[in-house]
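Predict fold of DUF1501 domain-containing protein; 465 aa.
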Amino acid sequence: MTGVSAQLGSTGRPPSRRELLRLAAPALLAGAAPAGSPGFGRARSVVVVFTSGGQSQLDTWDPKPDAPEEIRGVFRTIGTRTPGLRVCEHMPRLAALSHRYAVLKSMTHDDLDHGSACYLALTGQFHPRKSSNPPPRPTDFPALGAVLKRVRPARTFPHTAVHVNGPLLAPKEVSPGQYGGFLGRGFEPFEIGNVLETDRFLEGLDLPAGVTPDRLGGREALANRLEAAARTDVRLPAAADRVTLARQAFELIRAPQVRAAFDLSREPAAVRERYGLHRSGQACLMARRLVEAGVPWTTVFFNHGIRGQDDAPDDTDAYGWDTHNDIFEALKDHLLPRFDHSVSAFLEDLHQRGLLDSTLVCVMGEFGRAPLVALEKNFAGTTPGRKHWGGCYSVVLAGAGVTPGAVVGRSDRIAAYPGSEPTTPGDLAATLFHALGVSADTHYDDLTNRPQRVVSGHPVSKLYR
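Predicted 3D structure, encoded as tokens:
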């Protein structure tokens, strides 16, 4: 299926006339304009590497070496292959790869707590309870990968979107924005937890003793009949969710490419070591395998929790970027070495395999950190850190037509607010959809026939030549 017919393929019900018009309207009204704009439809896959907790722009991509010490911090900067671009001294591998990516330095919004800001980043929509830590709700906006499944489901893989190394905890409870929301559980991204434990997942794809292929087929036929009944009976929403999940389980068992994609043991030891033999590194390696398998949308939670270091200070896997105190120790000894190692390996591996041209990689978090370094009495740690800050932060994009070596936007002299090209999470979401060939003006009907726009912003055109 292509075009509008592909967008309708995941609904499981006949489209209404209004739905047909809404899905077709962007192409009818815009003509060839979206397809002719730079970067439109260049990507087969999008990979979001999510730096959970709020990565400090001042101590990574946008250092201010001429600012006072209480602003610039204790780290030095190093040059890159991009003229005029300097980054933190603890990212030498990424500095050497600056000709592969673009840095967008003018991201901005005003949501200042992790749960709602993660929701904003992962859905492109503000949460009704801004600057809070709300639980996931069935009335939430869906994750961007769920929206993609609604408007253009995958053709060659059982899942349109996969979340790796989740679920994201913010701070200790599951963050909203990761699920199907008002689209229902049938649209949720498939979730892979700790990729170091995928052996147990793969074992779950084996048929239980005594279950022959014929018996499996009978169970699948029964599940399909139950699904059809639940879909036509509005009194059975919970049953609809259960049978939908059962159908997805049958798809997994019957899809050999799923087992192949999720089996990290098929990778040579040298490749696994190149990414780093830890949760973050192997999650990035899993993302590369999913790109090869044809998964359109992958979100890698580089850190599965925003601030696990309070409970496990000696476990680097537990660290998140929420560095209120002890920021420089946490970055130098735990966060930046792994980030530099694994993300650089991911970018270089995609390039060497010829996948970067058709994959848009976006490295982002929910916000940045405050310009002023200060000790916060209400948080663990004995040395200063930085507070939450959404006024200005940086993201990195690579591949699928993004101008390599570009720097888009700039911050003010202390990286507090954009000095040019202010860009919202909605704009960033529109850029990701743009790369996949989904216009920001595309609309769809939710499961109650309410019209929804796929994203709230507009693509960042200056990322392209």
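The chain has 15 helices and 16 strands.
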